[in-house]
Amino acid sequence: MQPAAPALSLRRYGASPGSHAHAHFQVLVGLEGALDLDVEGRGHRLQAGEGCVIAPGARHDFEARSGSLCLVLDAHSPHWAACSAAGPFAPQLPPAVPALARYLQAALERGQPLAQQFGPALLLEAWQPTPLPTAAFAARARRIDWHALAAWALAQPGAWPDLAALAARVHLSPGQLNARCRAECGQPLMAWLRGQRLAQARALRAQGLAVAEVARRVGYRSPSALTAALRRQHGG
Q1: Are residue 89 and residue 151 in the same domain, yes or no?
Q2: Mind listing the pLDDT tens digit for each residue in 99-150?
Q3: pTM of full prediction above 0.90
Q4: What is the CATH number of the domain that holds 21?
Q5: Burial letters for 94-129: b for 16+ Cβ neighbours within 10 Å, e otherwise?
Q6: Domain of 115?
Q7: If 88 and its partner were Cys, which of 21, 25, 39, 210 is the partner (CB 3.0–4.6 Å)?
Q8: Whether residue 163 is found in the same domain as residue 84
Q9: What does the pLDDT look like over 77-111, one tens digit per residue?
Q10: How far is CA 133 from each of CA 77, 114, 121, 137, 141, rounded to the nearest angstrom?
Q11: Both 95 and 157 in a single domain?
């Protein structure tokens, strides 16, 4: 299973890929160039410092003939509905939003993990016409016991638990847990889990267990798949 894409990203736009829709809110803030957008038949040229909130299910298309760079947030929080109540386009953003977008651009370019962890919530807070309830940020303050989560995942029989099951275990959304893993463990959640599995496999091999038995215990489909994964981990 592939790990979820980061919630917050920098994206360069060019030729139109054709109209499409998402199951989540998509938030854009223009950083460079101009992006021609069509959302459910409404058009707008998104310039640097302007913003757009595309609601779930809204069909949209884009084109940037001379190229465009945007800060993009794929958001599942229902609080974004208030930001799109007057329509998708918000050329007159609160002053804090363009400044925050510039900061997040620089932080993402430098690979600073806290930008991914806290950037989505800060962007929503800056964009909101009214303050968010404290509960909206509670999930980001919740401590994760990574050792206990790894122990639970490694104890599951058969196939590895998926991202949703791991997130449910610690009472977070999949996107929140994946972002926290990147920030606190330095890698996407499924890559972290794969590393835990391989560490367990090496420990079991050191105890003298056969490769086939180790593969069965750690959830690999075959001994050869486990052997290949161990070689890849060590660059060989």
Answers
A1: no
A2: 999 999 999 999 888 888 889 988 988 987 655 555 445 555 568 888 889 8
A3: no
A4: 2.60.120.10
A5: eeebbebbeebbebbeeeebebbbbbbbbbbbbbee
A6: 8-139
A7: 39
A8: no
A9: 888 888 877 678 865 788 899 999 999 999 999 98
A10: 13, 21, 12, 8, 14
A11: no
Give all strands of the β-sheet with 35-39 in edge-to-edge order: 42-46, 35-39, 60-63
The encoded tokens of residue 156 equal 């599951």
State whether residue 124 is helix, strand or coil: helix
Helix (H, G, I), strand (E, B) or coil at 97: helix
* Cα–Cα distance measured from residue 16 to residue 18, given in angstroms and rounded to the nearest whole number: 5
The DSSP H or E segment spanning 148 is helix 146-155
Cα 75–chain centre separation: 9
Contact 154, 218 (CB under 8 A): yes
> Is residue 82 assigned to a domain?
yes
Which of 81, 108, 139 is the C-terminal boundary of a domain? 139
